[in-house]
Design brief:
The protein is globular, with a radius of gyration of 16 Å. The longest helix has 10 residues, at 86-95. It is mainly alpha-helical. It has a two-stranded antiparallel sheet with strand order 1-2. The protein is built from two helices and two strands, in the order ββαα.
């Protein structure tokens, strides 16, 4: 008997994924041919978490965080990861200077 794969409640819902193929920057990251690309988090809310974001990033010599190698927010599964980090984002905002 095979196990049933249980997907999260948000998986496959319109609010968790959309591809804006009309965007002049689509896709903004290099992705393999035919791979789905989620534009929902066009500007990644995890950027502000710095080293704790969990994505594939590098810091440039000038200190700017370069996320061009990261596809975490652009994968379908990224929705669950990002929304799971909202408490950390809220805490970081609370600690940020005005």
């Amino acid at each position: 008997m095979s196990e049933k794969i249980v997907k999260p409640e948000w998986y496959g819902k319109g609010y968790s994924f959309f591809a804006n193929k009309a965007c002049e920057f689509y896709p903004c990251h290099a992705v393999p041919e035919g791979e789905e690309f989620n534009c929902l988090f066009c500007y990644c809310p995890l950027y502000m978490l710095g080293k704790e974001c969990g994505g594939n990033f590098a810091y440039l010599e000038n200190g700017v965080k370069d996320c061009s190698g990261c596809l975490l927010p652009h994968r379908r599964e990224g929705y669950g990861y990002i929304t799971g980090k909202y408490r950390e984002i809220i805490e970081a905002m609370r600690k940020a200077p005005d």
